[in-house]
Amino acid sequence: MKINITHNNTIAKTIIFPLLDNEYLAENLSKIAKHVGLNAEHLQQDFKAGLKESLILYGNQEGLEKVYLLGLGKSPKQIDFVKAFRSFFYNSKKKLPKNVGLKLKMAGLEAYTEFIVNGICLADYEVGVYKTEQKKVADFFSEEAVLEIQVTESTIETVEKSAKIGHEMAETQARIMALVDAPANFKYPQKIAEFAIESGEKYGFDVKVFDEKQCLELGLHALLAVGRGSTENPARFIVMEYNASQENVKKIGLVGKGVTFDTGGISIKGSASMSYMKSDMGGAGAVLGTLEMVAKLKLPVHLIGVIPCTENCVDGNALKPSEVISSYSGKTIEVIDTDAEGRLVLADGLSYIKKNFEPDVIIDLATLTGNCISALGYVAAGLLSNNDILANKLLEISQLTGEKLWRLPLWDDYKDMMNSDIADIKNLSSAPLAGAITAAKFLEVFIDGHTNWAHLDIAGLAFGDSEFAKMKSGTAYGVNLLTTWLREIN
């Protein structure tokens, strides 16, 4: 699909009018009624412009076939534009022709072009890529299709830039959603490494992949311990680096949990939802997507992404409860539960990025605890941070992008819950409560005193229910959140 930005009237025979529920709604509906030859009063009664509300009209004028009205509600946020347009175009794409006009000019929506285009382009993503009977690409998303966006003449240059960002964001988000949705036999540590290498070569950032022998030489003992039960798909440690090569830019470190499938190990999970554990690399997906977007946008930042990547499987060699293992930091860990493996691989990732890069900010993301879902449901991810300025900024941006965060305490009151009698720390508290917090207290040990760190527990958000799939599917949670934050920090 090609996107054309114009201030002229579109030649398309199918037109979409997005409308806000504000003081101009009646006036705008009257203009549309006149345009299509309908009674304005009737149209005002039938359409109230609620969020995602839509109405189809058939044109009476020569050359005009269909008019769609799309409601955006009273005071939509960025994410509301994404949701409304993705929903409309996903549900309508089989009906839409190759040439469609979108009038932003009437309602003065040019400033929201990035989010509108992002939503439209996300509507192209389909989960069922492994079905033998592939669905035909909708005419609207074919290579020959054209979306004409009508704006005021003075905004054309700005709108073109915004539309490009929205499209590129959707492209990367769709790639990450597809990666998270991929089943375990199509997605294992080496495949994640190949994805990173391909992305780096295409968009311009460096990628280093350490195999299991090199991981041992580096001293990534916690990562290797988790991967011991996976005999066919050994661990990989992926380090990505984008450097804008400009002076006085912030150095940011991201660490993403990359467990491509999690059986729980010897502390095996129940079978009811184990199939969803293909999504346990959602944190890695967020880091991959953010590196890709930052490189695409050429942001003025020095960004390092680290992904400790492994499977957590059941085997005679698998890590056993009660074992004491070492880590990259040199600290010893008593393994209470092998299903608390994410924090083990993150421990090595955090220690590595702190020691070798000394970033100004460190953020880790992980589908880490069911306890966080118990606390926040599927609405918000948990945010735990030792820096109020960082935490408050992430909270603010999360409300805009719709990737909501809610801050949980990181008080030292919880620290003793991770004490071990025989090692420096244990990987799971014996108390069946505050699990998301005690997991963060565990990770805090491995940042080696860094004072600008945030941990995002995205267990309930990286993979979830939506109108776009019959089962749970990938969301690319964190890609837009982190990219938006990085666009604002310099």
From TrEMBL:
One of its GO terms (molecular function) is aminopeptidase activity. It comes from the Bacteria. CDD domains: Peptidase_M17. Binds 2 manganese ions per subunit. It catalyses: Release of an N-terminal amino acid, preferentially leucine, but not glutamic or aspartic acids; Release of an N-terminal amino acid, Xaa-|-Yaa-, in which Xaa is preferably Leu, but may be other amino acids including Pro although not Arg or Lys, and Yaa may be Pro. Amino acid amides and methyl esters are also readily hydrolyzed, but rates on arylamides are exceedingly low. Residues 44-133 form the Peptidase M17 leucyl aminopeptidase N-terminal domain. The active site is at 269, 343. This is Probable cytosol aminopeptidase. It comes from Emticicia aquatica. The gene is pepA.
